[in-house]
Amino acid sequence: MHAVRIFKETAEVADRLAPFGVTAEEFYSVIEAVVAARNDVVAADARTAGGSKAYFAGVRHTRFLFLPKGWDMDSTNGVESVVHRESGISIVYQSVDQACVGIRGPQAISGKGPASEAVIKEAQGGLFKDAELPEVAPEKIAELNRSVWFLCVSVNDQDPDDVRAELSLPASIDGGNFKGFLERIFVVRSGDWKSRGPVAKRPDDGDPYEFSIARK
Fold first, then answer.
1. Which of 10-19, 63-72, 114-123 has the lowest mean pLDDT?
2. Total tally of structural domains belonging to the chain
3. What is the DSSP string of 87-124?
4. Which residue has better confidence, 166 or 206?
5. In this structure, how many other beta carbons lie within 10 angstroms of the beta carbon of residue 90?
6. Residue 188, Cβ neighbours under 10 Å: how many?
7. Is 166 within 8 Å of 99 (Cβ atoms)?
8. How many CB atoms lie within 10 A of CB 202?
9. Compositional bias of type Basic and acidic residues: which residue ranges (predicted)?
10. How large is the average pLDDT for residues 105-133?
11. Could you give the CA distance from residue 187 to residue 9 in angstroms, rounded to a whole number?
């Protein structure tokens, strides 16, 4: 058995993100949009308004980040993502309870349905037997022709400075949530958000790109 690989130091995070064509700093535009959307609620709104707005902003701005880099939008089986056709890598936005905690993996706040479970099983799920979850040999991960990663973002309701994010590769979904991870890349660690200082004004949310959605 091999321990889940966690990348959290600045240099190793940069190296691991290189195949995605993105830097840790670039993810801040996505996270800023998520935080702003989450806070754009009033007392009269539905209880789930903040979470729903955060999700929509996360999906939108993940696409704004990756589409100019040659990725495509995809909505196969209702799972909203971006996909890099050549490498077979997909990225899905996900709001979670706590990101970047080394002793435990993040859990999806809203849970995951059968569509997400099937997508993961079809991609990285074929690497191992159930008895081997959630850990597999690193060399097996490199052999993947397709992989589904999740941009996991957590916002602490009690501490507005506690915002974290990781780009992680789940082993599977069981009981409606993630069951172990194969790799975790800490892109916004504890303390990073506060240390940035005031958030710069975000660009308008207008749709600057032309793209098509692949639905199956």
1. 114-123
2. 1
3. TTEEEEEEEBS--S-TTS---BSS---HHHHHHHHHTG
4. 166
5. 23
6. 22
7. yes
8. 12
9. 194-205
10. 71
11. 9
